[in-house]
Design a protein that fits this description.
Shape: globular
Order of helices and strands: HHHHHHHH
Oligomer: single chain
Helix content: 55-70%
Distance between the termini: 38 Å
Largest sheet: none
């Protein structure tokens, strides 16, 4: 069973990288079975993750039945998408539309960190971070992002953008890991996620669930401050 359920999110998204591009923190509701890369069904993006486009990486993450592999594919897809969107300006209005489709997909559907189970497991989290750090996309000659572009970045400029996006995403994942691995925060988050799930991510202002969600959000923010102060 695939790890990710790629469904449109209705709540306003949370910024992924304020300096680069906003991405929503997707709530993942379908959990797959973890396994080694060689045994992962549907994870064809692992065949050569250095040459795959963001769209192919997202497609593979959506089909993959291994949680560690799916989250890895998702994350490098995000990094490559952010890089490509800033590195390859559209050549025409038709190309702008293709860029818009990738932006929408990443912003509303494939912008998450992955299942919390991974971030509650130190070994799985450390493995993910190592894989992301060691990932390096292919050289530019012959690579096509999925649209025609008006200019091509230099080799140095492209990889500078890759490393910037990678470093920022790793920082975000580390922050998320610190939160989710905290038992008090995690228990509050589970309750908040259940409220969102049963309301299809759309809360009615002033409803009991809206009031309870607000209480949980305030408590989660208090825990965030405590974790930040401790670190």
């Amino acid at each position: 069973m695939p790890v990710f359920s790629e469904t449109l999110r209705r709540k306003p998204p949370t910024p992924f990288c304020a300096r680069l591009l906003p991405i929503v923190l997707l709530v993942v509701v379908t959990i797959g079975v973890a396994g080694p890369a060689s045994a992962s069904a549907g994870c064809d993006g692992l065949d050569d993750p250095t040459t795959a486009t963001p769209g192919k990486l997202f497609d593979s993450a959506s089909r993959c039945d291994s949680m560690p592999d799916a989250v890895f594919l998702l994350t490098i897809g995000q990094i490559r998408a952010i890089t490509d969107l800033s590195a390859f300006p559209a050549k025409s209005e038709a190309d702008e539309a293709l860029i818009g489709k990738l932006y929408e997909r990443m912003y509303y559907r494939m912008g998450g960190s992955g299942p919390d189970e991974l971030y509650r497991d130190d070994a799985l989290y450390d493995e993910l971070i190592d894989r992301i750090r060691n990932w390096r996309p292919t050289d530019l000659p012959g690579y096509e992002p999925g649209w025609e572009y008006s200019s091509t970045p230099s080799y140095q400029e492209y990889y500078r953008k890759v490393e910037e996006a990678k470093a920022f995403r790793l920082q975000q994942l580390a922050s998320y890991y610190a939160l989710v691995s905290d038992d008090e925060y995690f228990e509050l988050k589970v309750q908040a996620d259940e409220i969102l799930k049963r309301n299809d991510n759309t809360l009615v202002n002033g409803s009991p669930d809206d009031d309870r969600y607000s209480e949980l959000a305030r408590a989660m923010n208090e825990v965030k401050r405590r974790i930040r102060d401790d670190n």
